[in-house]
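INFO batch 0412 | record 1 of 1 | parsing
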Amino acid sequence: MNETHENNKGFWLGFFLGGIIGAVIIAVMGTKEGKKMADKILKQGEELKEDIEEDIEKKMKLLKTKGEELVKEAEEVKQKVVEQIENKKEEVSSAMVTKLDDTLTQIEELQKKGIDLTETVHHKYFKKDGKPLTS
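INFO prediction complete | emitting C-alpha cells
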C-alpha cells in the first residue's frame, strides 16, 4: 500500500510539472510578448556566443604567443648547455693533451735512464781481458 501511495505522488508531481512547462511554452510561443521575449533571449544567446568565441580566440592567440616564447627560451637554454658542454670538452681535451704530454716526457726520461743504466751495466760487467766491451 505504501508503494502505491509513493507511485501516486510521483505521478501527480510529474503531471503538475508537465502542466507548468506546457503553460510556459504556450505563453512563450503563443503570445506576442512571449515571442518577443523568446527573440530577445535568442538574440542575447547569440551575443553571448559571439563574446565567448571572441574570448576563446583571444586566449588561443595568447596561448600561441606564450608557447612560442617558451620554445624560444628552450632553444636559448639548449644553446647555452651546448656551449657549456663544448667549453668543458675543450677544457678536458686540453687537460688530456697536457697529461699525455707529461706522460710521454716521463716515458722518454725513463727510456734515457734505461739506456744509461744499460750502458753502465754493460761497461761494468761485460769486460774482456779487463777492458769494457764496445758496442
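INFO post-check: Residues 43 and 49 are 10 Å apart (CA to CA).
INFO record closed
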